[in-house]
Write a structure and sequence with these properties.
Blueprint: E1 3-6, E2 10-16, E3 19-26, H1 28-36, E4 42-48, H2 54-62, E5 66-72, E6 78-84, E7 91-97, H3 110-113, E8 117-120, H4 125-134, E9 139-143, H5 146-151, H6 153-160, E10 165-169, H7 170-177, H8 182-192, E11 196-200, E12 206-210, E13 213-217, H9 231-246, H10 251-268, H11 282-296
Parallel strand pairs: 1-4, 1-8, 2-6, 4-5, 8-9, 9-10, 10-11
Antiparallel strand pairs: 2-3, 6-7, 11-12, 12-13
Helix pairs in contact: 1-9, 4-6, 7-8, 9-10, 10-11
The structure holds adenosine monophosphate.
The site of adenosine monophosphate has 17 residues, from strand 2 and helix 9.
Length: 303
């Protein structure tokens, strides 16, 4: 096992200007694992309730995700509901029900514990700590969101102090640090623990910062964005999947991983829920990564 993820597994109700879905497959660990599995072997840690459709588990298996760390518990599956504005960069959360995640106590299979790369997906920081305590990973990245920044700030700070990297969106970076300037916010987050800060900016791309080095990748320009849900987790899946596939965390590899993240996220948003990821192929992602290079590559400028 190269890469392990813990995160939410949910049934989402989502409404965008282009339609809506109910009880659709979602959750941070779902988007992460479906994208990362295109690049490396992924071990999945999470919990579902009795109402979770078997089809969801079958999809993970069919895409090569290792589900030995996925538990089925009594009670209901995690539920989340959101509505996007005309401007898809903004959404309102209408409902968050933790359900079976409230009493979840993750237990990692032995080979998961030894995996070199670990991603603590968006979920209660105390669960992120539980998984961290069981892992001997040498590179750990985390994600979080406003819900936990305001709801579990102390646990969140404990996780931050122990990870190598964080992926976070610009609004959350501001909430976490009180800094409205994104470069200052990244610097502030460095002080809380993670040496590498990845700030996701929706349709405006992603910025990575380590010490005084920065790299920026735009979002891939798409004509049809249908549902941005899971874009951040798909980005993280591409990012960590790339790092694990190449077993490299040099600055060059991190920049390449950022492009891999943007590439995977661009597929995820083209359909509701995980629909665009169900049959996505390695050839398709390779072709889009090549188009990405043409989009952003330019000859040296002589002024
Ligand atoms: P993203 O669009 O990248 O923020 O990810 C959206 C996914 O995160 C949805 O599929 C939700 O099920 C899941 N989600 C929403 N709120 C939470 C939360 N508080 N904790 C864990 N997962 C969440």
């Amino acid at each position: 096992m190269d890469l392990v993820v813990v995160g939410s597994v949910g049934l989402d109700d989502v409404e965008t200007p282009f339609g809506k879905v109910e009880r659709a497959l979602g959750g941070s660990a779902i988007y992460f694992s479906l994208t990362a599995a295109l690049l490396t072997r992924v071990g999945f840690v999470g919990v579902v309730g009795e109402d979770f459709p078997e089809e969801g588990v079958e999809l993970l298996k069919a895409r090569g995700v290792d589900v030995r760390g996925l538990e089925r518990a009594a009670g209901k599956t995690f539920r989340w509901s959101g509505r996007y504005h005309e401007d898809l960069n903004h959404r309102d959360t209408l409902l968050t029900e933790l359900n079976c995640f409230e009493h979840f106590s993750p237990k990692l299979p032995d080979d998961y514990r030894a995996a070199k790369y670990l991603f603590l997906g968006n979920i209660h920081p105390s669960l992120q700590l539980d998984v961290l305590d069981q892992s001997s990973a040498s590179f750990v990245a985390m994600d979080t969101m406003n819900f936990w920044i305001s709801g579990a700030p102390d646990d969140l700070r404990r996780v931050l102090a122990r990870v190598d990297a964080i992926t976070i969106n610009d609004e959350e970076a501001r909430d976490l640090t009180g800094q409205s300037n994104i470069v200052r916010a990244a610097r502030e987050i460095h002080r809380l623990g993670p040496k590498l800060v990845v700030i996701k900016r929706g349709e405006y791309g992603a910025l990575i910062a380590r010490d005084d080095e920065y790299f920026f990748a735009p979002a891939f320009p798409l004509e049809d964005v249908v549902d941005p849900t899971g874009a951040g987790d798909s980005f993280a899946g591409g990012f960590m999947g790339y790092i694990a596939r190449h077993d490299a965390t040099s600055w060059a590899a991190l920049c390449q991983a950022t492009i891999a993240g943007s590439t995977l996220a661009s597929f995820s948003v083209e359909a509701f829920s995980v629909d665009a990821l169900r049959s996505l192929t390695h050839d398709q992602i390779t072709a889009r990564a090549a188009a990405f290079r043409r989009l952003t590559d330019f000859p040296a400028i002589v002024l």
